[in-house]
Amino acid sequence: xxxxxxxxxxxxxxxxxxxxxxxxxxxxxxxxxxxxxxxxxxxxxxxxxxxxxxxxxxxxxxxxxxxxxxxxxxxxxxxxxxxxxxxxxxxxxxxxxxxxxxxxxxxxxxxxxxxxxxxxxxxxxxxxxxxxxxxxxxxxxxxxxxxxxxxxxxxxxxxxxxxxxxxxxxxxxxxxxxxxxxxxxxxxxx
Length: 190
Description:
The structure is a single chain. By secondary structure, this protein is of the alpha+beta class. It has one domain. The protein is built from 5 helices and 5 strands, in the order H-E-E-E-H-H-H-E-E-H. The chain has a 5-stranded antiparallel beta sheet with strand order 3-2-1-5-4. A hairpin with a 2-residue loop joins strand 1 (28-34) and strand 2. The chain is elongated.
């Protein structure tokens, strides 16, 4: 089996090293707009914390019976830095070893990790948007307030937009690089 070409090795190493930035930038963001908030509200999700207009969002959500958002509700914050470290080291190891089997294993773990992360985020949003307090000041029969997993969704008079932030896009970039390198190495480097 031929080892990787230098370009594949360099792309994998750079993509993996890019994950260092995720320790210093948000992974995801949820933006909200409404007539009473024309400047919008934003909540950013980092590896270990939340930032943005979380207190204002909590104040608004209280009226419709949603739980108070706090960092303690996310046990993921305790393990996410280690998962990122794992992908960073595994990606560098894949580039260093230049082995197609290791490359397929790395791609598989990236895909599996992405599926688990999306499911976890969806599950949190479902619980958060469906388990409403019966004592809420505002009740709309049959209404749930699950934030969008990805993209735009209207929630009462609010527009909610959920997208990756800098750290999330770096994971997407690493995935695209790894898929491209895998395709290239299996198709053209025989």
